[in-house]
From TrEMBL:
Species of provenance: Methanothermus fervidus (strain ATCC 43054 / DSM 2088 / JCM 10308 / V24 S)
Gene3D superfamilies per record: CGI121/TPRKB
Recorded family membership: Belongs to the CGI121/TPRKB family.
Name of the featured protein: KEOPS complex Cgi121-like subunit
Length: 159
């Protein structure tokens, strides 16, 4: 399945309406708070784990988009995962995951939401991420991005 991960800037006034609007697209689109992302590799790893979990019927969520959030957050509880990576009223920097979307659909989505492409928002703010994920000494050894990737992997091991 074709995967594209983009950084986007913009504002969503009504999150519930935005979720309904996203459902009209004939592919999987998942928006997350870019501040909670440890880099593009972190998200790609989480998406691969989410796809594999769904294929093996080892998924935590019934929805692939939510499963991506769970895996990205490295958190089994959906509500906690969404607290970490979910978009909030003040979110202006987004990580968008597109699965099975043609390029024209991606461009239409960006235009519909009034977003601006900006992959700079996917660069990790390490001090913010350490606090958000309560990262400890492992960061000194493997770094923030690898620590987050490790948490994603541990979800699969703990099944």
């Amino acid at each position: 399945m074709r995967m594209k991960i983009l950084g986007l800037k913009g504002k969503i006034e009504d999150i519930d309406a935005a979720i309904e609007k996203i459902k009209k697209y004939d592919c999987v689109i998942q928006l997350m708070d870019a501040r909670a992302i440890g880099g593009k590799r972190h998200v790609k790893h989480a998406v691969i784990h989410a796809l594999n979990a769904m294929k093996r019927n080892e998924n935590i969520a019934n929805d692939l988009g939510i499963e991506i959030c769970v895996r990205t957050a490295g958190e089994r509880q959906i509500s906690k995962a969404l607290d970490i990576v979910g978009i909030k009223d003040d979110t202006e920097e987004f990580c968008a995951v597109f699965l099975g979307c043609d390029e024209d659909i991606i461009e239409e989505f960006i235009k519909d939401f009034g977003f601006e492409k900006n992959n700079e928002v996917l660069k990790p703010n390490e001090s913010y991420l350490k606090k958000l994920y309560n990262l400890g000494k492992e960061v000194e050894v493997v770094g923030v991005e690898n620590a987050l990737i490790e948490r994603t992997t541990l979800l699969t091991i703990e099944v």
